[in-house]
Amino acid sequence: MPGVRLTQQERHQIALGLADSLPYAEIARRLERPTSTTTREVMRNGGPTAYRADLAHRAAEQSREILHTKPEASSESAT
């Protein structure tokens, strides 16, 4: 599933897996995702003890908005 973003539901499943002390590989297997996807998601959002699905999802949405916002054209004309 390359290029497909994690859903809020998947992030909640990650949080539940972490709460159950499951290894990243097991969480990833249950999500049918690569282990590296799960590991990166957790590490970029607080690590295994501080991961919060809602905060992680909000951060991902904000990052996506920033990436898809086109810079405004300069209002000054070249002279």
TrEMBL record:
Domain annotation Transposase IS30-like HTH: ranges: 5-45
A Pfam entry, by short name: HTH_38
UniProt cross-references to InterPro entries, sorted A to Z: IS30-like_HTH, Transposase-Integrase
Domain of life per record: Bacteria
Name by which UniProt lists this protein: Transposase IS30-like HTH domain-containing protein
Organism encoding this protein: Kitasatospora cystarginea
